[in-house]
Design goal:
The chain is built from 18 helices and 10 strands. The chain is an alpha/beta fold. It folds into 4 domains: 5-74, DNA Methylphosphotriester Repair Domain, CATH 3.40.10.10; 83-188, Orthogonal Bundle (Arc Repressor Mutant, subunit A); 195-265, Methylated DNA-protein cysteine methyltransferase domain (Double Stranded RNA Binding Domain, 2-Layer Sandwich); 277-354, Winged helix-like DNA-binding domain superfamily/Winged helix DNA-binding domain (Arc Repressor Mutant, subunit A, Orthogonal Bundle), CATH 1.10.10.10. The strands form 3 sheets. The chain has a 4-stranded mixed sheet. Strand 1 and strand 2 (42-44) form a beta hairpin. The chain is elongated, with a radius of gyration of 27 Å.
C-alpha cells in the first residue's frame, strides 16, 4: 500500500528528536532550534505553551532568520525572535543589581520593579531565584560592603555611613557589630585596640591557625605554611592587637584539632561568624549536614528556596573562613565529584574519608 505524503511527513517528524522536545516543551532546547507550523504560518520556540500542532504540519529551523526566510512569522506568545526568557530575566536582574550598586541611596522594591517593568511580586520572585537573595537583602549586603570600604578610607565614621547610602546612622549602628564583627570605629582603624587571640598548631591536614575575638572563634585556617596563615590574619585586621594564646586558648585549639581528627565529636565552641545575609544562610545549612554525609550545591540552593543560586552557594562556601566548624567540605557536585575547596581538594577528600570511616579501614 502506497503511503501518502502526509503520512510520510508525520512519521518523519515523529522520529525526529526535536519533535520530542516540542512535545515536552523542553526549554533547554530554546535557541538550539525553532519549529514552524504550516497551517498557522508562525514559528515558535520548543518550549512554547501554545497548542501542539499535528506533526505533518511541522518543519524545523536552525534560527529565527531561517524560519522568516521560509515565510513564517514569530509567535506572539513565545516571541522566538527575542532573547530567551531566562536570558531576559538575567539581564533584568543584572540591571537592577547595577542600579542598586551605583545609587547613593536605597531603592524600594516598588521602585526596582517599576524600573524593570513588571509587578513587585514577580520581580521579587525572579530576583531571589537568580541571585539567591531578596532585593532587600542584596541592598543591605551592598550597603554593608560600601560601609566597610568607606570606613577604611574616611576620617569620619558618620560620613562613611551616610556616604554608603544609609538615611540614618542609627539604622546601621543597630546591626553594626554583626556586620563588622566590631564597632565601626574599631573597624575603621583596622581593628585598632581590638584583641584577637590566635595560635598555630599541627594536625593531620598540615598547619592550622585558630583565631578568636571576644565573641568567639572568627577564623580556622588550614595550610602548609604557618607563616602564610598568620599573614592572612594580619591582612584582615592590620591594626588589631594579635595575642598568642594562653593555656586556656591552647585548649580551644585542641578542641578544633580534635574536630578534624574525630568529626563525630562535634564542636561546642562559640563562633564569631561574619558574612552577608546570604552567606550566613548557606553556612547555617552546612552546619546542619551530619558528619559522614554530603549534600550537593543544588540541594543547598533548593533548601534556600533559590534553586538557581547554585553558583552563589559555591561562592559562599569559598568565602568560609571557619574550616571544619562550618563544614563546606561536605558539599559536592551533583555527580558526586569533589569540587573546589579553599584549602585544597586533598584536604577535602581527607576530611570526608575521616568522616566516612574510610581512613580507619585503610589502616
Amino acid at each position: 500500500m502506497k503511503l501518502s505524503l502526509k503520512t510520510i511527513k508525520a512519521a518523519t517528524t515523529q522520529h525526529d528528536l526535536r519533535w520530542q522536545a516540542v512535545l515536552a516543551r523542553d526549554a533547554t532546547y530554546d535557541g538550539r532550534f525553532y519549529y514552524s507550523v504550516s497551517t498557522t504560518g508562525i514559528y515558535c520556540r520548543p518550549s512554547c505553551g501554545a497548542r501542539r500542532p499535528k506533526p505533518e504540519h511541522v518543519d524545523f529551523h536552525a534560527s529565527p532568520q531561517d524560519a522568516e526566510q521560509a515565510g513564517f512569522k514569530p509567535c506572539k506568545r513565545c516571541k522566538p525572535n527575542q532573547p530567551p526568557l531566562a536570558e531576559q530575566q538575567a539581564v533584568m536582574v543584572a540591571n537592577a543589581c547595577n542600579m542598586i550598586e551605583q545609587a547613593d541611596h536605597a531603592f524600594s522594591l516598588e521602585q526596582l520593579a517599576q524600573q524593570a517593568g513588571i509587578s513587585s511580586f514577580h520581580f521579587h520572585r525572579i530576583f531571589k531565584a537568580i541571585t539567591g537573595l531578596t532585593p532587600k537583602a542584596y541592598t543591605s549586603a551592598h550597603l554593608h560592603k560600601r560601609v566597610r570600604m568607606g570606613l577604611k578610607q574616611s576620617d569620619s565614621v558618620t560620613a562613611a555611613i551616610f556616604d554608603a547610602g544609609y538615611q540614618a546612622s542609627s539604622r546601621f549602628y543597630e546591626y553594626s557589630t554583626s556586620v563588622l564583627g566590631m564597632t565601626p570605629s574599631r573597624f575603621r582603624a583596622g581593628g585598632l585596640k581590638m584583641q584577637i587571640r590566635f595560635a598555630v598548631a599541627e594536625c593531620s591536614l598540615g598547619a592550622i591557625l585558630v583565631a578568636s575575638t571576644t565573641k568567639g572563634v572568627c577564623a580556622i585556617l588550614l595550610g602548609d605554611d604557618p607563616e602564610s596563615l598568620l599573614h592572612e590574619l594580619e591582612d584582615t585586621f592590620p591594626h588589631a592587637e594579635l595575642l598568642g594564646g594562653d593555656a586556656g586558648f591552647e585548649e580551644m585549639v585542641a578542641q578544633v584539632v580534635g574536630l578534624i581528627e574525630a568529626p563525630g565529636l562535634g564542636l561546642s565552641l562559640p563562633l564569631d561568624i561574619q558574612g552577608t545575609a546570604f552567606q550566613q544562610r548557606v553556612w547555617q545549612l552546612l552546619r546542619d549536614i551530619p558528619p559522614g554525609t554530603t549534600a550537593t550545591y543544588t540541594e543547598i540552593a533548593a533548601k534556600l528556596g533559590s534553586p538557581r543560586a547554585v553558583r552563589a552557594v559555591a561562592s559562599a562556601c569559598a568565602a568560609n573562613k571557619l574550616a571544619v566548624a562550618i563544614p563546606c567540605h561536605r558539599v559536592v557536585r551533583r555527580d558526586g565529584h569533589l569540587a573546589g575547596y579553599r584549602w585544597g581538594i586533598a584536604r577535602k577528600r581527607a576530611l570526608l574519608d575521616k568522616e566516612s570511616g574510610l581512613e580507619c579501614e585503610d589502616q
